[in-house]
Amino acid sequence: MSFQTGHIGLNVSDLDRSRDFYVKIFGFEIVSESGREDRRFALLGLDGALVLTLWQQSEGRFATGLPGLHHLSFQVPDIEAVRRAESVVRELGATLHHDGVVPHGEGASSGGIFFEDPDGIRLEIFAPDGAGDRPAPTTGAPTCGFF
């Protein structure tokens, strides 16, 4: 038996704001949306495949100090795609950690950007190569674990 991630579901506090955020940064297509005010959701995908579901079922901000999700990581083909995403993250005024592209660890060439969505959910966009031109922000541990 083998497993692979199907799609990711996130609770959000403002569906319109979150949907627009994920569409602008990741280029997701809106596969489906609810028209009911009491059951709001958006299904987002790429090339016909469902990737992310957003459910308007929460209030406040994501609590990083509680057990559960640490962060979501999305791989792109190259560092240029990471830099394009970084410019959109900056344009939207999202919280960006480490001030831009950084490697995954000391001496690593893989790396990317680490940021938060409007509800404080931590996100990563990375490329397998091309991020080694800056020092790693965390010594002795993976960058993605400490932001």
UniProtKB/TrEMBL annotation:
Q: Write out the ranges of the annotated region (Disordered).
A: 128-147
Q: Which GO terms describe its molecular function?
A: dioxygenase activity; lactoylglutathione lyase activity; metal ion binding
What SUPFAM superfamilies does its record include? Glyoxalase/Bleomycin resistance protein/Dihydroxybiphenyl dioxygenase
The chain positions of domain VOC read 4-128
Q: Which domain of life is it from?
A: Bacteria
Q: Does the keyword Metal-binding apply?
A: yes
The cross-references to Gene3D superfamilies, in alphabetical order and at most eight, read: 2,3-Dihydroxybiphenyl 1,2-Dioxygenase, domain 1
Which InterPro entries does the entry link to? Fosfomycin_Res_Enzymes, Glyas_Bleomycin-R_OHBP_Dase, Glyas_Fos-R_dOase_dom, Glyoxalase_1_CS, VOC_core
Its keywords, alphabetically, are: Dioxygenase, Lyase, Metal-binding, Oxidoreductase
Q: Which PANTHER family match?
A: GLYOXALASE_BLEOMYCIN RESISTANCE PROTEIN_DIOXYGENASE, LYASE, PUTATIVE-RELATED-RELATED
Q: What is this protein called?
A: Catechol 2,3-dioxygenase-like lactoylglutathione lyase family enzyme
What is the scientific name of the source organism?
Streptosporangium sandarakinum
Output the lineage of the source organism.
Answer: Bacteria, Bacillati, Actinomycetota, Actinomycetes, Streptosporangiales
